[in-house]
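Hi, here's the filled form for the chain we discussed.

Project: internal
Contact: R.S.
Residues: 199
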Amino acid sequence: MPLFKNRYQTESNRLKNWDYSSEAIYFVTLVAQNRECIFGVIDDDKIILNDNGKIIETELLKSITIRECWFFHNWVIMPNHIHLLVEIVSSSVETHNVETYDLETHCSASLQLESESHSESKPQKLSRKPNSISSFVAIFKSVTTKQINVMMNYDANIIWQSNYHDHIVRNYNSFDTIYHYIKNNPKNWNTDSINSNLE
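And the returned structure, exactly as it came back:
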């Protein structure tokens, strides 16, 4: 396991040599630190968000609104994680192939960041490509963590696991399976592998 700043770092599960700002459909999962149920509870197969969860929802809706080149096909906030089914498309693309299947959708979206320039004479710093999945995740985690810490009067409490899971959706069958998995996630909470209450 590699060391970063003299600490063990989790191996990345990113696909090597894949440009995560490129046009594709991505299934992304962010999990709360230690899988703690800090965003709400499931009641009658529906998520009931607490104040933390409402912050997550507000920031997610903002993300969906501002990203002109992203299309959020489906998403869900669960007690200790969130799932997103996101498509990155060209700004010149007006329609999405998967829309022809008449599925419910949630909006569209684009993230503009400046990447740091690197000099060969200086050690390279870790950086994220603008408009990429990793840029979105990093900003989303940072913004929600700060807001939850302020609201709960925490002192730099860690809200999210350091890494996240992603899967590149290759075909419609996979898209359909993931779409309905997200849609049915609340009613399947009692068998969810991320449900820490089952341990």
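Let me know if anything looks off before we file it.
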